[in-house]
Amino acid sequence: MTLSQQILQYLITGVTVGTIYALIGMGFNIIYNSTDIINFAQGEFVMLGGLLTVSSMHVLHLPLPFAALVAVLGVALIGTLLNIAAIRPVKDPNPITLIIITIGASIFIRGVSSLIWGKEPYPIPAFSGEDPIHFFGAVIQPQSLWVMGVALSIVLGFRQFFGKTITGKAMMASSFQPRAARLVGIDTRFMILISFALSGLVGAAAGIVIAPMSMTQYDIGVMMGLKGFCAAIIGGLGHFWGVVVGGLALGILESLGAGLISSGYKDAIAFGILLLMLFFRPQGILGKSKGDRV
Amino acid sequence: MLFTAFLSVLPRFLTNDYYLNVLIFIGIHSIIAIGLDLLLGYTGQISLGHAAFFGLGAYITGVLSAKVSFPPIAGLVVALVGVGVLAYLIGIPTLKLHGHYLAMATLGFGIIVQIFFKELGFLTGGPSGLVGIEDMNIFGYEFDSDLKYYYLVAVSLLLTLLLSINVVRSRVGRALRAIHGSEVASSVLGVNVSRYKVGIFVLSALYAALAGWLYSHYMTFVSPSSFGFMFSVKLVTMVVIGSLGSIWGAIFGAALLTSMPEFLHVFANYETTVFGFILVSVMIFMPRGLLRGIEDAILGGVRAVRGRGDEK
After folding, report:
1. How is residue A85 annotated by DSSP?
2. Which residues of A touch B (CB under 8 A)?
3. Which of A166, B100, B107, B132 could form a disulfide with B66 if both were Cys (CB 3.0 to 4.6 A apart)?
4. SS3 (DSSP) at B45
């Protein structure tokens, strides 16, 4: 492979991984927009998505598409349970309390998962074979296309949902002005519940589509969640398109850095970018700077 | 004073050396937790990366001891200076951030430092860890038994405690609480907010480095996995569960969380699950921490009793 082919290969990997980061970051954004909470258990949704698919296939003997559906719905349900059991009862919702609660919840979910599934990694078969597609001297795994396709449909789906449906608009309203939304008769508590369900749904989807390429295991959630959070911040926390840009930028830079510099420092590169971003442009690539109001 | 007496007689009540070992860890964790409480409880700035400063303290003295046989006391000086300078440089841009952004920046910093521990194999021994760190000796005096080491840790803890109580009760302490209340209001009143925030960040990093030094020469072995994100979370949990803004609370939290695995051994595999569950429940039902939660419950009970008395 020539250098330019190698770079093309890194770009393809980067876009695939970046798409996953963008999806996870989108899960963060949905909850952040409706509650101002950073849900540190987001990564666990990703892990649960993959592992529930595995179980649905091997225990319930469902074919892959149905298993995936069961997993996605299951994780959406877990998301709502998380909201009801751990977030709603909080009397003093300051950021530090909520950060610790969601971290505690993620530890709890990880603990339960390690009891159910043990500590070994599980594979999920590729959705449509493993014959690589050749593309200008680089190779694309068919699964990469699945990742991008699923992500694209989710993004477009959300666009429709938030822009066109009554529920979606009500969610947007609750996130901008919770008081005003309540005054016009929107049940904001229910909207927050939906946001946890949706967030679980997109997290699980991300976990399922990436599992054929990277296996799935009880503890993958931590890094996945943090990277998704990076994507959200790089793009601009809470910004709909920002997280897509942030995820792709993060995935590509990380993959180029790992390929051209050193793979051991891959995560250091990702978090280095995050720090630079926070120091010099904390509102993110697409976010607008807001003056601090007192 | 009372605490000094308590610490000095405590070992007499222990039936075996294993508990002494647990106590040493409680002491080491308390030192970090007190520093983190100054930052988080008093000044209201979260750090999810304090394991990095602990690790740097441990690794700096460890590498100097194992590779060029520096005496531990010289290792301590280098560790404190190194960590202090790094914390200062990192602190300036980081502490401009607030809330989730601050949490994320400190978290990112912690992860990067841990990766360097893993990747700089020629210095740190890589992922499998660094061996050959010498036993603690200070100016020729060997701390060769757990009991002696316990007293070394206890003295360090007391010094940290004295310094912290003085900081909290001084002008500086009032400035820190003012910053916690409102940064804008305090800067209007002439408090140099960023200088105080960075200052207290550096101080808490120095405590962590001191703890790292104690840890390194006690274990005589360090590995990257001890200084990861989860340990940072554990440290914050100690402070929060103990009760934010209370130095005694930090020590209580450190003692509770350090000894908890010993109790949870009964549950063996369920340990993480139970830990997560306790964390969430405490935050939901006693958001001001266990110590204050118990205090509130007692006061509430007293008030209820008195209230009934008044009605009669």
Report:
1. I
2. 38, 86, 89-92, 95-97, 99-101, 103-112, 114-115, 222, 226, 229-230, 233, 237, 262, 264-265, 267-268, 271-272, 274-275, 278-279, 282, 292, 294
3. B132
4. coil
- Residue A47 carries which side chain, given as an amino acid letter? M
| Residues ≥6 apart with Cβ < 8 Å to A112 | B273
Residue B282, pLDDT above cutoff 90: no
Site of tokens 């991300």: A206
Q: What angle do CA B161, B165, B168 make, to 5 degrees?
A: 135
Cβ within 8 Å of residue A65, ≥6 positions away: none
CA pair distance B165, B170, nearest whole angstrom: 8
Confidence band for B227, pLDDT divided at 50, 70 and 90? very high
> Around Cβ A224, how many Cβ atoms within 10 Å?
26
C-alpha–C-alpha distance, residues A178 and B45, integer Å: 27
Beta strand B221-222 with B130-131: parallel, antiparallel or unpaired?
antiparallel
Strand bridging mode A133-135 / A138-140: antiparallel
For the record, the structure tokens of B9 come out as: 């007689």
Ordered by start, the domain boundaries in chain B are: 2-311
Taking an 8 Å cut-off on Cβ atoms, the answer to whether A222 and B111 are in contact is: no
- Residue A152, amino acid: L
Residue-averaged pLDDT of chain A: 89
- The CATH topology of domain B2-311 is ABC transporter involved in vitamin B12 uptake, BtuC (1.10.3470)
How crowded is the C-beta side of B266, counted as CA atoms within 13 Å?
Answer: 5
Is B105–A278 a contact, with Cβ atoms under 8 angstroms apart?
A: yes
Nearest residue on chain B to A102, judged by CA atoms? B280
Out of A38, A92, A274, whose CB is closest to B108?
A274
Q: By the CB < 8 Å criterion, does B280 face chain A?
A: yes
Beta pairing partners, A216: A122
Domains in chain A with CATH codes? 3-280 (1.10.3470)
Question: pLDDT, tens digit, for every residue of B99-111?
Answer: 888 888 999 999 9
Q: Which residues on A lie below 8 Å from B94 (Cβ)?
A: 278-279
Residue listed under structure tokens 């007692």: B298
- Dihedrals φ, ψ of B79, to 5°? -60, -45
Comparing CA positions, the residue from A224, A227, A233, A232 lying closest to residue A44 is: A224
**pLDDT confidence of residue B271:** 76
Q: Which of A49, A67, A88, A61 is nearest to A195 (CA)?
A: A88
The pTM is what? 0.88
Q: Residue B115 and residue A110: Cβ atoms within 8 Å?
A: no
Say how far apart CA B82 and CA B85 lie, in whole Å.
5
d(CA A165, CA A260): 46
CA angle, A162 then A206 then A244, to 5°: 55
Size of interface A-B (CB pairs under 8 A): 128
- The C-alpha atoms of residue A181 and residue A35 are separated, in whole angstroms, by 13
Under a CB-based contact definition with an 8 Å cutoff, are residues B127 and B224 in contact? Answer: yes
Assign residue A138 a region (left: φ > 0; alpha: ψ between -120 and 50; beta: otherwise): beta
DSSP string, A159-172: HHHHHHSHHHHHHH
CB contact under 8 A, B118 and A264: yes
SS (H, E, C) A12-48: HHHHHHHHHHHHHHHHHHHHHHHHCCCCCCHHHHHHH
Say which of B109, B270, B283 has its CB closest to residue A104.
B283
